[in-house]
Design goal:
about 0% strand; globular; about 70 residues; mainly alpha; 4 helices; about 60% helix
């Protein structure tokens, strides 16, 4: 979905970061539950994968007020 909105391919490293943030796999983060509409809104707010993935990672941190 992110590749569709940004009209570009993610690197393997970017794919790994997205999978980790969505799954909460590194022990510090909690899994994210977002609707497609929420993801689409975030793509509008960011110009590239880096900013979008960083925002997702920030949202996944425990006690984050960005959720």
């Amino acid at each position: 979905m992110l590749e569709h909105y940004f009209q570009s391919r993610m690197t393997p490293g970017q794919r790994k970061r997205v999978k980790e943030v969505i799954g909460g796999s590194d022990g510090r983060k909690v899994p994210l539950k977002m609707t497609p509409a929420q993801i689409e809104q975030m793509t509008v707010e960011h110009d590239a994968f880096g900013g979008m993935i960083g925002a997702l990672e920030a949202m996944a941190l425990p006690n984050s007020s960005a959720k």
